[in-house]
Design a protein that fits this description.
This protein has about 120 residues and is mostly helical. About 80% of the residues lie in helices and about 0% in strands.
C-alpha cells in the first residue's frame, strides 16, 4: 500500500470516530437521551480502547494518540463508557467526550496536512 493510501485510510477512520463522538455530544447537550444509533459506535470505540491490546490497528493508533497527549486515562474511558451505557452522562463525561473529540479533530487535521504534503 502506498504512503498516500495509508494516510487516506487513517484520515477516514479518524474522521469517522470524530463524527461519531460529535453526534453523541450534540445529542447529550440537547438534553435528550442519545439514540442507540448514535451511542453504539462511541461505546464500541470506548470499549475497544479499554482492551486496546486486542483491538484493531486503528483503535491502537487512537489509544497511542490519547496516551501521548495524556488526554484520557484508561480509568476515565471506563467511567465514560459505564455512564454512557445508561444513556446518561455527567458533566465530567461530557468534558471527556469534548476532549476526545478535540484530540481526534487535531489528528484529522494533521493527517489532512500530511496528505496535502505527500
Amino acid at each position: 500500500m502506498s504512503q498516500t493510501g495509508i494516510y487516506v485510510g487513517g484520515y477516514q477512520r479518524v474522521r469517522d470516530y470524530a463524527e461519531s463522538v460529535d453526534r453523541l455530544l450534540l445529542e447529550l447537550k440537547s438534553g435528550h437521551a442519545p439514540t442507540q444509533e448514535t451511542l453504539r459506535p462511541v461505546l464500541s470505540l470506548l470499549e475497544a480502547l479499554e482492551n486496546s491490546q486486542r483491538a484493531s490497528a486503528a483503535v491502537q493508533a487512537v489509544n497511542v494518540l490519547l496516551r501521548s497527549r495524556k488526554a484520557l486515562p484508561r480509568s476515565k474511558i471506563t467511567t465514560m463508557r459505564t455512564e454512557l451505557q445508561t444513556k446518561r452522562a455527567s458533566a465530567s463525561t461530557i468534558e471527556g467526550l469534548e476532549t476526545f473529540a478535540g484530540v481526534l479533530d487535531e489528528e484529522r487535521a494533521a493527517i489532512s496536512a500530511r496528505l496535502r504534503g505527500v
